[in-house]
Amino acid sequence: MTTFKDKADSRWDTGQKLTIAEILEIFTNGDLPLRFSAYDGSTAGPADAKYGLDLKTPRGTTYLVTAPGDLGMARAYVSGDLEAVGVHPGDPYEILRVMGEELHFSRPDAMTLASVMRSLGWETLRPVAPPPQETLPRWRRIAEGLRHSKSRDAEAIHHHYDVSNAFYEKVLGPSMTYTCAAYEDADRTLEQAQENKYRLVFDKLRLKEGDRLLDIGCGWGGMVRYAARRGVHVIGATLSAEQAEWAQKAIAEEGLSALAEVRHSDYRDVQETGFDAVSSIGLTEHIGVQNYPAYFGFIQSKLRDGGLFLNHCITRPDNTRSTKAGGFIDRYVFPDGELIGSGRIITDIQNVGLEVRHEENLREHYALTLAEWNKNLVEHWDECVAEVGIGTAKVWGLYLAGSRLGFERNVIQLHQVLSVKVPAGGNVGLPLRPWWVA
């Protein structure tokens, strides 16, 4: 029986070139769950497959060869050199699912690799410029400052959050909430689940009229306005100028200016202290794991004795892996973003003197949230493309769908950790059992 390796060796002996499709078959042992076609006219995989990939240009091959893995695939896809067939670009979830579950690659021996490269042409190894949506690699971002310095954090936030408020309105929906929702059940709408998330945070923090809340990384001010509507005095801080402008306008339109304020500010520049509660919803991912002690120490210093702190962030399922994000996420979505397990977060919160009282994992809730954001992107695709361009819109479709798979497969999680600043003597004055409705 002739193997794909035998075919490569035979072509080497006769000086013939392999087609693009034959090369893919070599790397997958011919086990393709989707239809593949290439610019050289070659095809592979089941002819009746529901999903497929169409490699349209030699540049796409260069992207794939020079950056194997998710970064090369993203470059080829975002640039339009690789097309996903059978899915909408605003929601490529199904093809990503099939590829993740059924497409497996192996590394051929040296002779086969030599035959592959002779067929592709050595010029394929010459890197070409990535799509304009890609940011610089970590080692070249030093011009923006040291990692997690104020200047570099501001640039990282600008890259992701200052895309366009109009774009975010289409994708996130009326709540303008870009964090995991909390679903009472799977039949709830996205807006109901986001409102429930704010209710959950508000209740866990035992906020009441007249209290003072600091919301760090407040985004478009969803938590700020939720608390202010209930008589809480709130300061929100965000590094995104567009978020701050949108949030301040929304605060004014709701008549909440006497209670709420969103500052375009680094959280480290907040001078006020003595808060009854601090919320951090979706910011810890941007802090840098080595900076957790300083971050949580800052929060501890802002709380009054007996004050509560809720940290809501994406985590890894363990505390042993690399904290750095993969190539696609780091270069296209969250530059300098880092994740670690909830154990490390809890440890560092405890080490600054806060007492952890409760934690829970909302992993499945984030998968549901992301699916709804993908639906919104598909529904408003033409408007989103007009607002940010086809490349950026495709980045978002890929990012949201891939993240959904990550939460479904327990590659990433979402943890809420509740803690309290214990006064001298240890009496925090909290109920003996959880006081909120889960």
UniProtKB/TrEMBL annotation:
Polyketide synthase-like methyltransferase domain span: 167-419
Alphabetized GO MF terms: methyltransferase activity
Annotated transmembrane regions: none
Keyword S-adenosyl-L-methionine: yes
Keywords carried by this UniProt record: Lipid metabolism, Methyltransferase, S-adenosyl-L-methionine, Transferase
Domain of life: Bacteria
GO biological process: lipid biosynthetic process; methylation
InterPro entries recorded: CFA/CMAS, CMAS, MeTfrase_dom, SAM-dependent_MTases_sf
Family: Belongs to the CFA/CMAS family.
Protein's name in the database: Methyltransferase domain-containing protein
Lineage: Bacteria, Bacillati, Actinomycetota, Actinomycetes, Mycobacteriales
